[in-house]
Amino acid sequence: MLLEVKNLSIYYYTLAGVVKGAENVTFNIDRGEWVTFVGESGSGKSTVAHAIMNIVPSPGKIVSGEVIFEGKDLLKIGKEELRKIRGKDISMIFQDPMTSLDPLRKVGDQMVEVMTVHGVPEDEARERAKELLEKVNLPPDRLDYYPHQLSGGQRQRISIAMAMAFNPKLLIADEPTTALDVIVQDSIMDLIDALKAEGTSIYFVTHDISLAAERSDKIAVMYAGKLVEFGTVEQIVENPLHPYTKALIEAVPDLWKESEVRAIPGYPPDLRSPPPGCRFHPRCPVFKERSTLKDLCDAVEPEMIEYEKGHFVACHLYGGAGK
Ligand code: SF4
Ligand code: MG
Q1: What ipTM was reported for this prediction?
Q2: Ligand 1 nearest atom to the CA of residue 242, by list position
Q3: Which atom of ligand 1 is nearest to the CA of 296?
Q4: 237 CA distance to ligand 1 middle (Å)
Q5: CB burial of residue 189 (10 Å; 0-12, 13-18, 19+)
Q6: What domains can be seen in the chain, in order of their start residue?
Q7: CA dihedral sign, ordered 215, 219, 224, 225
Q8: Of 12, 95, 127, 289, which sits most exposed with the smallest number of CB within 10 A?
Q9: 293 lines ligand 1 (CB under 6 A)
Q10: Model-level pTM?
Q11: pLDDT average, residue stretch 149-164
Q12: Of 25, 172, 22, whose CA–CA distance to 85 is shortest?
């Protein structure tokens, strides 16, 4: 196992109250596996991604849990050791590539620096930077460009090239295609696929479950800071268990067998005071219909159970008292 995340909780201590951004999130990513995290914005997918790198922005704090990467808990090791892993064994790309690019410096210098900080001699790093550009289908003269001279898609290619510098074991990609048009989107997805083909595991974040279904091996569904379902793409798309997952799939016309498109009624809850019991209960159609669940869903938090091999769900309809 490459990555084991156990009971990870992240809170944001804002002036308006404590926002429970992610709570008790547990999952694994195997070597060479692509796992996509889906859910509405604010569901905790990016929060967990940041926590894996131990870069949760202030006022956020990791309040509990473990992030075991190749047997080491990244939340316990020293800053120096973590710096060695970041950008080398684990790389991250963001929705806005400018997050990782300095607007005032040439792209080539920045690519070189990513490598020299990890001990690669400068001339070797220059050579490698050229090769990396070729890998992401950009001409070598782009090394002399400043980020603002490139299009959004080209900038994202540069940030992928930087992330590829050391053939990372894990790539965390937080909505890297959301700001791009469809054709460019596809080419970025191809690059991530190519990285995967070389053995890199992928933690991919999107709010678009159809994008998730296309390329990944597994899907993790998050709702209001909780992981509510986890399984292979086939398990999730063909046999979704959680009412929220079902609603997500039904909202996508292509994935849905019939013709009607339905949006999910209601809004995600305020994470300063999430609903008691199952956080989805105020929006859950099953809860509204099934009287047997009435005292359970709005009072007892459902635990994650393994419904079938590798297919996990947290909902009272399965395995527990609600069966
Ligand atoms: Fe719906 Fe209850 Fe399942 Fe939550 S636990 S998703 S409210 S049926
Ligand atoms: Mg996000």
Answers
A1: 0.97
A2: 6
A3: 2
A4: 19
A5: middle
A6: 3-89+166-313 (3.40.50.300)
A7: negative
A8: 289
A9: yes
A10: 0.93
A11: 93
A12: 172
